[in-house]
Structures are given as structure tokens and as C-alpha cells.
Amino acid sequence: MVDMANPVIQVEGLRCSYGDFEAVRGVDFEVARGELFGLLGTNGAGKTTTMEAVEGLRATTGGTIRVLGADPLADRRAIRPKVGIMLQDSGFPGDLTVGEMVAFWRSTSSRASDAAEAVEALDLVHRVDVRIKQLSGGERRRLDLLLATLGRPEVLFLDEPTTGLDPESRQRVWEVVRGLLDGGTTIVLTTHYLEEAESLAHRIAIMSEGRIAVSGRVADVLARQPARISFDVPAGFDVCALPILAGDVVHHPAGRVEVRTGELQRDLGDLLDWARRDGRALTGLRANHASLEDVFHAVRTDEKAMSR
Ligand SMILES: Nc1ncnc2c1ncn2[C@@H]1O[C@H](COP(=O)(O)OP(=O)(O)OP(=O)(O)O)[C@@H](O)[C@H]1O
């Protein structure tokens, strides 16, 4: 059960600028202990800038941030041992081997976890004697995650942790992240993979042009978007033949009818009754709740409408 009464991370009215350009324009969110909060958004929406500010790596121009009750920039030394950070580009020394880097990193933490276990979990055993600069992009990402989690952080920031990973490696990273959540770690994650957010996040926020456009529990965010029912219809089909439905009907030229509805069960029932009565086969019938992709698309559409 997520305890929102005692958030581990509190961000209020956050603003960040690069010169005259304001990249983050008043962002608010809270993350409870043991929760995974997903920060999504288009390229340039302000996710990394927000993450860097919350990590204490970037000065802000407005608002307040508290991580474990402290200001992450001013009180960095106090909270740093409890925080793990996986940047988009970690810049670790390429001449060290994986094993040397892990040993060095481990020696810097008083709370280090079992390195051998972590190396195994992230499938890097066979790369221990390889120099970092010789790793593939996916292996680098897995090493970055390993190093970010080695100190058993209470709070973990993951900036696009699975970019460039093949599906199997991505699953492996998800397993490691789920294990950390089971152990009570609080995680903030940015990602462009919507299925990753859908699969891992308790709550998400979708950023658009420096602000949070949509936020909430994944199920609640999805429930705010219409569901879809679709099926094939023969050439020359007249949509007036359909029963009266709560949703909007779109007749695609390729011979498919789509219903976008906030009343999935009722409209689906009415359509099935109608098909049975008229002896019609609804070939290719599909009924789905909205996906995060639909929500993302709606945010993009609003973004474009606002910029017109
Ligand atoms: N060093 C910088 N100097 C000037 N502008 C910057 C700098 N870094 C980022 N920006 C701008 O700030 C905005 C937000 O960038 P940010 O990297 O936070 O976005 P993002 O949501 O993380 O994007 P992406 O998904 O591409 O990583 C963008 O318009 C970007 O061009």
C-alpha cells in the first residue's frame, strides 16, 4: 500500500532554465516510499532537466524539492549515500574493466550489496574482464544500472534505463527493478517505452513543454481516455445500420468500423446484440481499454493545438 502521507520525494512549483529558455515551468509531484513513479513525455519535454534537479545535479530557478526530507542540492552530502543515480550517459572511465569498476564503486559505499549477485542478475559475468569502452551499448546500460544500485539506495533515479537494450535484456532489467521495489526502494524512472511504464509504474506523469499534462495511477490515467471497439465491415456498409451507441463511430475507408467510447461494456453489449439479431459476423472484433500510447497521443494533439 502506497503511503502518500509521508512522501519520500516532494517537488513543488519546480522551474529550471537554460539562459533565457525555461525548460521546466512549474512542476509538482510527490513520490511515496516504495513507489515507482514514471516520468514520460516527448523529446525535449523537460524530463531529464526535472530529474537532474531532483537528483541535486542542477540548480533550479524556482520551487522547492525535498528528497528524504532534505534539499538535494544544498544537503547533497547528507543524502548522497542513500540515493542511486543512473544518468542517460554516465561517462565512466573506459579503460577500467567491468570488474575493476564494480570493485572500485563497491569500495566507495558502506552499504554495498553483493556485487557477484548483481553482476549475475544483469548478465555481465562473462564481461567482468572486458574494458568498459569495449562493452556494447546494452551492456553499458546494464553496468550503469548495476553501479547505481550497488549501494542499496533508498531512492533510485533511472533516466531511460533500457534505451538500446534488446527485449531479453530489457526484461532482465525489469526483473531487477521489480526486485528493488519488492525490497522497498523508491524509484523515479524516465522512459520512452510506454509498455515499460505500464508494466512497472504505480503512478506516472506525462510532461509536455516543461509542464505535467497528465498524472495519476496508470489505471486512472487510462480510464480517462475512451476505449476502442473495432470490427470489419463489408464494402458499401452503411454506419446508419448500427445501433445507437454512447461512443463516437468512425468508419475507416479500409472497411473497418471503430467506436471510441467511455462506455465499453454497454456499447460492446449493444453491438453483440445487434450482430446476433441480424445474423452478422463481427470479423476481426477487438475491444480494448485505452493504452498509454492513446494518452500520449492525446497529449501531443493538445500540444499541437496550443502551438497553433
Ligand atoms: N544544456 C542545455 N542548454 C540549452 N537548452 C537545453 C540544454 N539541455 C536541455 N535543453 C533544452 O531543454 C528542454 C528540455 O530538455 P530535457 O533534456 O530536459 O528534455 P527530455 O524530456 O529529457 O528530452 P529527451 O526525451 O529527448 O531526453 C529541451 O528543449 C532542450 O532542448
Low-confidence stretches: none
Question: Which structural category do the helix and sheet elements fall into?
Answer: alpha/beta
Strand order of the biggest β-sheet = 5-6-7-3-8-9
Specify the overall morphology.
elongated
3D architecture notes:
By secondary structure, the chain is an alpha/beta fold. It folds into two domains: 7-222, P-loop containing nucleotide triphosphate hydrolases (Rossmann fold), CATH 3.40.50.300; 226-289, Alpha-Beta Plaits (2-Layer Sandwich). It contains ten helices and 13 strands. The strands form three sheets. Strands 5-6-7-3-8-9 form a six-stranded mixed beta sheet, sandwiched between helices. Strand 6, helix 6 and strand 7 form a beta-alpha-beta unit. The two termini are 43 Å apart. Bound molecules: adenosine-5'-triphosphate (ATP).
